[in-house]
Specification:
This protein is 37% helix and 16% strand. By secondary structure, it is an alpha/beta fold.
Length: 482
């Protein structure tokens, strides 16, 4: 296949396989050879510019590694990228970062995130900083509150360290909400400036239909759970923005003629494994694709619930030192209690459930459904920031390539938000690395295309144009540790 690639792409894919200890010498020579090859000339730097020098760029709009790049950031945008020499000697007031041998990817989006409200808001500075320090530079809050609107604005203006924030309003949930109440709430949340509506379980079909009709009238999208009375078919017809947790997909895979399936599917379909008809997967995938609905899997939540790891083993993971001890203890106790419960499904049943969800996730991806990265942090077992990386790693476990997994948290999100530079979209967001894109970036020690685990080998992050070095990151994490 590589014989048909342009020569530059053959070269850069070859470079991706060179061990780091040889890469610095090689790229210095390469830069000297190709500088002045007709690319746009390097800009004149001004005080305050940030330059990442001699870095291997994974642009994400193509599966390739562009070696020996100098990336110039001005304000919160990528100004220029190329191999030409930049700022030699460096003017005063310029941040020069030697990134030789390292790899640059766009910042990640956590598309099912939470921040606190009320008493829980005390944890928000920790949540937001953990997102930022782990290169999660866009987060979509999926349980909104009026206090999240000014928080969103402060984050998006760079007044607070953290990701760009997209927020739902308070959720639509429960069977007691009337259709008229739903219509009123939709209009109120749209007028207040929330970015989307959040759907929780429990809505009656009548109330859901009133909510969906009004949402389309006022031009606000809705996402989240699929109430049982609604079901997947109606959710697709109603044009959800995203269905999160793959909610009600397992139920849709149960054959209509199945003999006595459980009245309740249990935890996101865990109890339905024996009734699922795998031959129905292509039909469901095609229906979701045709409806244009995106999927946010939150696979970490499901796998940590269903796998054989004890609460003690989960709590021993390194990221748990950064999360609230009382919540870690609660998660630990919950998992130990589940495994000790004689009514909890067997290990073999749970393993089959995990594999089935992986197969469904892969089928959605291969069938052209837009899959978006989301872990549900900081819900059970998911530490903000770290959980997005765990989620990526699980997508590779499900059969996606590292590049395909990375797209779920970068270019796929930009496409969903209309920020991918395609005709009819807005200006470039942070889903790819190119001039004009927002400067949300992660600098990695090693190539994530060869091993997705390398996304956690973070050498620095750029958040809304602000450079946080590896040393500053480690210091900040140490201050957050319990």
């Amino acid at each position: 296949m590589s014989d048909h690639l342009p020569s530059g792409r053959r070269r850069t894919r070859f470079l991706a396989r060179i061990p780091r200890r040889f890469l610095a010498l090689f790229t210095l020579g390469l830069t000297a050879c190709v500088a002045g090859d007709g690319a746009d000339p390097a800009p004149e730097l001004v005080s305050g510019d940030l330059v990442l020098r001699n870095v291997n760029v994974i642009p994400m709009d193509q599966e390739e590694v562009l070696s020996g790049q100098n990336v110039v950031i001005r304000g919160n945008q990528i100004l220029w990228m190329g191999v030409a020499a930049v700022g030699e000697p460096a003017p005063e007031g310029i941040q020069m970062v030697d990134a030789t041998g390292r790899y640059l990817i766009p910042g990640l989006s956590e598309f099912h995130a939470h921040v606190g409200s009320g008493a829980g808001a005390a944890a928000n500075p920790r949540i937001l900083e953990l997102y930022a320090l782990n290169g999660v530079t866009t987060a979509r809050g999926m349980l909104g509150h009026p206090t999240h609107l000014p928080l969103r604005d402060s984050l998006n203006q760079g007044l607070v360290l953290g990701p760009r924030y997209i927020t739902s309003g308070p959720s639509f949930s429960g069977s007691t909400m009337t259709p008229d109440e739903a219509r009123t709430r939709v209009r109120e949340q749209a007028a207040a400036g929330y970015d989307l509506l959040k759907i929780h379980p429990g809505l009656t079909r009548e109330t859901f239909d009133a909510m969906a009709e009004t949402a389309h009238e006022v031009g606000i999208s809705f996402s989240g759970h699929v109430p049982a009375e609604v079901g997947l078919d109606r959710a697709l017809e109603a044009r959800y923005g995203t269905i999160d947790h793959l909610d009600m997909v397992m139920e849709a895979l149960v054959h209509p003629d199945a003999t006595e399936p459980p009245a309740s599917g249990g935890f996101f379909g865990l109890g339905l494994v024996s009734w699922v008809d795998r031959d129905r997967i292509p039909q469901v995938v095609e229906a979701v694709r045709e409806a244009g609905v995106a999927m946010v899997p939150t696979q970490t939540l499901m796998e940590f619930h269903a796998n054989d790891l004890t609460g003690d083993e989960l709590a021993a993971r390194p990221e748990y030192r950064y999360w609230l001890p009382e919540q870690v203890a609660s998660w630990q106790s919950l998992k130990n209690s589940l495994l000790a419960d004689p009514d909890f499904p067997s290990s073999a049943h749970r393993a089959e459930y995990i594999q089935l969800r992986r197969d469904i996730l892969r089928s959605f991806h291969e069938g052209g459904v837009l899959v978006l990265l989301g872990s549900d942090a900081p819900q059970r077992w998911n530490v903000p920031g770290f959980a997005a990386h765990r989620e990526l790693h699980m997508y590779v476990d499900a059969g996606l390539s590292p590049y395909e997994a990375l797209r779920t948290g970068t270019l796929n999100v930009a496409s969903y938000l209309g920020e991918d530079g395609t005709p009819g979209s807005h200006d470039w967001g942070s889903g790819a690395i190119r001039p004009g894109a927002r400067a949300d970036l992660i600098l990695l020690e090693d190539n994530p295309l060869t091993d997705i685990q390398n996304t956690l080998a973070i050498a620095g992050v750029v958040v809304n144009g602000r450079w946080i070095s590896g040393e500053e990151r480690e210091r900040r994490l140490a201050e957050l540790a319990f």
